[in-house]
Design a protein that fits this description.
Chain lengths: 109, 223
Amino acid sequence: MNDRELKKGSAPLLILSLLEEKPCHGYSIAKLIEERSGGKLRFHVASLYPALYGLEKQGMIRGVWEQGPNRRRKCYKITAAGRKVLQEQKQTWAVFCSSVERVTGVRYA
Amino acid sequence: MHDWDRIVEQRLPKLKLPEAREAEIREELAEHFAEMHVDLLAKTGSAEEAMRQALEEIGDWHSLARKIRISEMLGKLSLRVRTFWLPGLMGFAAAMLSGIALSMMWRSMPDGGRALRSAINDSGLGLAFLGLLQLPAGFVASGVAWYLGASGVRRACVALFPLLVIEMAFTLTRLLGGASLHAVLTPEPGIILYVGTGLIAGGLPFFFRRQRLSVFTCRWLAQ
């Protein structure tokens, strides 16, 4: 599995986690992911928006248009269904990471 | 100040979505670029360099349009449809169509091929040969299931085992001259029957175990 596949697989988890904290619009989601990962993770337009639209169609997030500083922008909020999926994904991820850690001996910060 | 609405309008191919939805997506992308441009401008100090870097992020606009189209299309479908019915029916249709096409080709073989057909028929391989030709159709089903993120390629291959067993039974009855089973498995109806039965039998376990597959499926399909 390469970096691209890892990033692709973790996109819903990352997006839902950020939206659980506070509603965000697309650009700020991309910026937050980059900032919090120390620049290691970057979601470009081509990967971010298809992921957002997919989550929205599945009812995990809900987009609402609101007025930004210069023009209106779409703000995404996590739904109850999204919170449920997020909890499941967090558990899956925790089990996966601890399993990899046990096998490889690599410690995660 | 760049007109990002116009830039997105010009570069992003038609998404083939309802007009209102398409306009909404274009507006959202334009807003994204406008904000990104402000940040890049502060960083680079050059409007042109900021624009170049902003546009560089997209690379292939056609690929972006395709990804958005797929996420819109798949998002409408329920998990069960996406993980079981769609790959199952697509695989089934691919297997049926290729089976019928092969059967028709076999029957309407041109003069040059008649000798080959006679030779195969005389050797007792006749329809068994057709049966073996169904294998690629099974792999088509496997590929479709994998592509749609139903379960990954190894699990999808497991679904082919019933098909392979029926293929082998069909071939053996022909070779050994068994009449009863072979009478059922003759020309088009027989081909449809055994390929269809095999695919359905292989797909059923996925239906009942779909909950275990849902984590992987959501992860892939939400992209």
